[in-house]
Design goal:
Elements (H helix, E strand, L loop, with lengths): L3 H25 L4 H18 L14 E4 L5 H11 L39 H15 L5 E6 L6 H12 L5 E7 L2 E2 L2 E2 H5 L4 H7 L3 E6 L3 H13 L5 E6 L22 H10 L2
Parallel strand pairs: 1-2, 2-3, 3-7, 6-7
Antiparallel strand pairs: 4-5
Helix pairs in contact: 1-2, 1-3, 1-9, 2-3, 2-8, 4-5
Family: Belongs to the transketolase family.
GO molecular function: magnesium ion binding
InterPro entries: THDP-binding (IPR029061), Transketolase_N (IPR005474)
Length: 273
């Protein structure tokens, strides 16, 4: 359980990461800010509290691994990685400016600490499964985390992979579902409804935890519970707000892939003070 000091520190980091997200997308003139803002709280708690990694030794064999299946939300990914010490925060401002290591979608051939390139939606859980199966074969205690979007969950490969995770008893796999309710073309339910997401994951044999995805204590507790679950993979369905923290981005599809203008950046940074 988080102490008051730990909670305050995580909140400060999450706020700074939100500022980084809007600044880096503004400077690049492109990127995906809104889905990054919905995902950042979970990534901050994961990277600063639960993910066993060595930034100075990114290829450490016994490390935990994270896979960003919703690969367009690199602003959140990079902000969390920088907060964990994988590279200096100043490098965030090179986002999408070639020749940068911080490409629009994560590349494991460019940036140490990125365990898998991604971008084509629906594939991250399959990658996590493969890594988790190999770890069990090799006797490693490592854990494998994957962040999936709710819009992305319309992909059939997600459910084929979910069935595999359960069938193989991959209790070293944890899926973080960023359930912000909005995808590129509008509300997820209006594009193709997922129905009861919790019920679906349970039907596929997963342990399911449903939380407020902006409640840092709830995120921490869910990740702790997932690590203690044996015999089955865990899905953490994090109910979030698209564009969380920036009023004009919240609950709108407009900023799914639209960077803030200079004027909008000033408003966003003022709100994130």
């Amino acid at each position: 359980m988080l102490t008051d000091d730990e909670l305050s520190q995580l909140a400060d980091v999450a706020r700074q990461c939100r500022r980084d997200i809007v600044r880096m997308t503004n400077k690049a003139g492109s990127g995906h800010p809104a889905g990054s803002l919905s995902a950042i709280d979970a990534l901050v708690v994961l990277y600063l509290r639960h993910l066993r990694v060595r930034p100075e030794e990114p290829d450490w064999r016994e490390r935990d691994q994270f896979f960003l299946s919703k690969g367009h939300c690199t602003p959140a990914y990079y902000a969390a990685m920088a907060a964990r010490g994988f590279f200096p925060r100043e490098e965030l401002m090179t986002f999408r400016a070639l020749p940068t290591r911080l490409q629009g979608h994560p590349s494991n051939t460019h940036l140490p600490g990125v365990d898998s390139s991604s971008g084509s939606l629906g594939q991250g859980l399959s990658v996590a499964n493969g890594a988790a199966i190999a770890a069990k074969h090799d006797g490693l205690e490592s854990r494998y985390y994957v962040m999936i979007g709710d819009g992305e969950s319309q992909e059939g490969q997600i459910w084929e992979a979910a069935m595999t995770s359960s069938d193989r008893g991959l209790d070293n796999v944890c899926a973080l579902i960023d359930a912000n309710g909005i995808q590129l073309d509008g509300a997820v339910d209006s594009v193709k409804s997922l129905g009861d997401q919790g019920a679906k994951w349970r039907a596929f044999g997963w342990e399911v935890i449903e939380i407020d995805g902006h409640d840092l204590s709830a995120i921490d507790g869910a990740l702790t519970r997932a690590a203690l679950t044996k015999g089955a993979p865990t899905a953490i369905i994090a109910r979030t707000v698209k564009g969380k923290g920036v009023s004009f981005m919240e609950n709108t599809a407009k900023y799914h892939g639209l960077a803030p203008t200079d004027a909008e950046l000033r408003i966003a940074l003022e709100e994130l003070r």
